[in-house]
UniProtKB/TrEMBL annotation:
Belongs to the TSR2 family. Pfam families: WGG (PF10273). It comes from Rehmannia glutinosa. It comes from the Eukaryota. Keywords: rRNA processing. This is Pre-rRNA-processing protein TSR2.
C-alpha cells in the first residue's frame, strides 16, 4: 500500500503532474493535432487525474514500470507511438515528485513552476519562393 500524502502534498503533486504533462512535447503535439480525436485535450486531462489517483490511492505498490505502461498506453490511444525516451523520463520525474511530496519536499515542483515553458510552434513558416530572382518574364 502507498503511504498517504498530506493535503498540501497532494495539491502540490497534482500541480506537478499537470505541469509535467503540459510540458511534454510529444503529448502537446498529439493534443494540438488532435491525433486522438477532437477530445484529445480532455483525454490528456483525464490522464493527469488517472496518474494522480494511481500515485496516491493505489492499494498496491506503484513501480516506475506501471507509470511507463500507463503513459505508453495513453499515447497509443492518441495514435502516437513514442520512441524518444520521453515516456521513461516523464515516469521517472513523476515518481521522484511523489517521493519528494511524501517527504514534504516540493523543490522539484517549485522549479517546474519557475521554469518557463519552452515555446514550440508547429505552424508552417512561409518559405521564400524558389522563383525569386528569375524575373517575371521567366514565368511566361
Amino acid at each position: 500500500m502507498n503511504p498517504a500524502l498530506t493535503a498540501e502534498a497532494a495539491v502540490q503533486l497534482q500541480e506537478g503532474i499537470t505541469l509535467t504533462l503540459s510540458r511534454w512535447a510529444a503529448l502537446r503535439m498529439a493534443i494540438e493535432n488532435e491525433w486522438g480525436g477532437r477530445d484529445s485535450l480532455q483525454k490528456s486531462q483525464q490522464l493527469g487525474d488517472l496518474l494522480f489517483h494511481r500515485l496516491t490511492q493505489s492499494k498496491e505498490q506503484v513501480y516506475i514500470d506501471d507509470i511507463e505502461d500507463m503513459l505508453d498506453e495513453f499515447m497509443l490511444s492518441l495514435n502516437t507511438e513514442i520512441g524518444d525516451g520521453s515516456i521513461e523520463e516523464i515516469a521517472e520525474n513523476l515518481m521522484v515528485m511523489r517521493e519528494e511530496c511524501l517527504e514534504g519536499n516540493f523543490d522539484s515542483i517549485k522549479r517546474l513552476k519557475e521554469t518557463n515553458v519552452p515555446s514550440v510552434s508547429y505552424s508552417r513558416q512561409p518559405q521564400p519562393s524558389p522563383f525569386i530572382g528569375f524575373g517575371e518574364d521567366w514565368l511566361d
